Amino acid sequence: MSLDAVDYKGFPADKSKTGGWVPATLILGIEIVERLSTMGIAVNLVTYLGGTMHLASSNSANIVTDFMGTSFLLCLLGGFLADSFLGRYKTIALFALIQTLGTGMLTVATTLPQLRPPPCNLNCQPANGFQMGILYLALYLIALGTGGLKSSVSVFGTDQFDEKDDKEKAQMTYFFNRFFFFISLGTLTAVTVLVYIQDEVGRIWAYGVCSLSMFIAIIIFLLGSKRYRYKKSAGSPIVHIFQVIVAAIRKRKLDLPYDAAMLYESTSTPEASRIQHTQEFRILDKAAIVTEGDFEEHASCSAPNPWKLSSVTRVEEVKMMAKLLPIWATTIIFWTTYAQMITFSVEQASTMERTIGNFQIPAGSLTVFFVAAILITLALYDRIIMPLWKKWKGKPGFTNLQRIAIGLVLSVIGMAAAALAEQKRLTVAKSAGRNTSTLPISVFLLIPQFFFVGAGEAFIYTGQLDFFITQSPKGMKTMSTGLFLTTLSLGFFISSFLVSVIKKATKTNATAQGWLADNINYGRLDLFYWLLAALGVINFAIYLNSATWYKPRKPKSPIPNGYGAQDKC
């Protein structure tokens, strides 16, 4: 086992007693329950905000997307705490407890009559500031818990496999797909069982199930403590990045040496951990130029001031993170598309015929087709596509960049399908009467948009997770996972921004409600979907250019020490 993995006592980890699929499964369990809680709340929150809190449809959609966006944005905070102070294990346990507290408070907020406005009579009175404040507090406690937990779960799961062992490395390749498959099962339970309980039994029971499930998952997670492998923290990667940038700025006027071997490489960095010098972003190489005053004398040794001098390995780590940014930026628009599946698509469903016999499908449960598409796609990919691709190309499936590309294409098709479905729905609304509560059109018309975007998520989520974990420096994997999850965050925030801008720009006068009317039967949601499809096409073209530019890092080779001999601490 590699020296950077230890057991719960801090001793070098024993492969026969730690790591592997059993502890990885225990870690998966807590993520399944997190997805159950977060998605169970998010997919049906828009109906609660509109039907119970009496908010406008666009405001309700923005509250949901802001909640989800904040959840994923806080992954950066969780990653920072995990890398700098707590470690991944403690970060997961702490933030899971915070999420449990948040779901408990949401149970209270949606149960007490004082915390919601009275039912509509002639006029609907929207929720007041105090009522919304309590709801926001509960939601953002959940967001904080989700963010801190998600940043560490997938990386802590991969920590249970040794990349230097061919057998365990192969297991880790399958871990990404199975990780997403099982958390999608959590989502499936959320959009079927939990949404049904919310609508037919009561939100107090549904949210109570969320709190209790997370509490049980925490206990199970803690029971596996002796079986986990723990990776030693290399310090805060954010601080390391700023140190390289500051050192490079200080030496921006210096000329780079003609030979990269003259750049500084610390002798304290193990040979196996050193990274070969590359030619990209050469401005950062200036941080590794040795000048007078870069070293500080201590009691019996001299060591570089990290804000003045960085090793080649440290500089290359920052370059690796910088190279991820174009791919990061071009995956954001997918999650803007995804946001429509849990907001406006649910509102579409609420206006359509949803009965099967005597049973009425809850509007929020239509996302079951979305989750089903994810599960079917992952199963087909894992059992059919990967084996066939391995026989044909000799590789276990598509590369991570290829999977991302497929996901982007499917999202564009999904938005086009959504626009066509909405055009049909609006035609029926116009003929049946725009104030008709249930339009004579089947809700199953929405299946294609859920299917295409769901299949797209199956490819893009696993592709992004694989890309950001495997292509980031070893000491920055938690932060890299947080960076990946911020694409989800920014996607939701961009959705909120677009909704606000489109609503304002298309509302031409006091009577015309624009594309995104309070009652979607009076709006032109189809044009909003076409706009997202067009943005997706433009984004895909940019992505192809970025993916072509990106070059995976070559295998390591021996690295010259440069001036490393001066580092004697």
UniProtKB/TrEMBL annotation:
InterPro entries hit by this protein: MFS_trans_sf, POT_fam, PTR2_symporter_CS
Molecular function terms from GO: transmembrane transporter activity
CC annotations in GO: membrane
Subcellular location: Membrane
One Pfam family per UniProt: PTR2
Membrane topology reported for the UniProt record: Multi-pass membrane protein
Record keywords: Membrane, Transmembrane, Transmembrane helix
Main location: membrane
GO terms, biological process: oligopeptide transport; transmembrane transport
Transmembrane segments: 63-82, 94-113, 133-158, 179-198, 204-223, 324-341, 361-381, 401-421, 441-461, 482-502, 527-546
Family the UniProt entry places it in: Belongs to the major facilitator superfamily. Proton-dependent oligopeptide transporter (POT/PTR) (TC 2.A.17) family.
Annotated protein name in UniProt: Uncharacterized protein
Organism, as annotated: Solanum lycopersicum (Tomato)
Gene this protein is translated from: LOC101268119
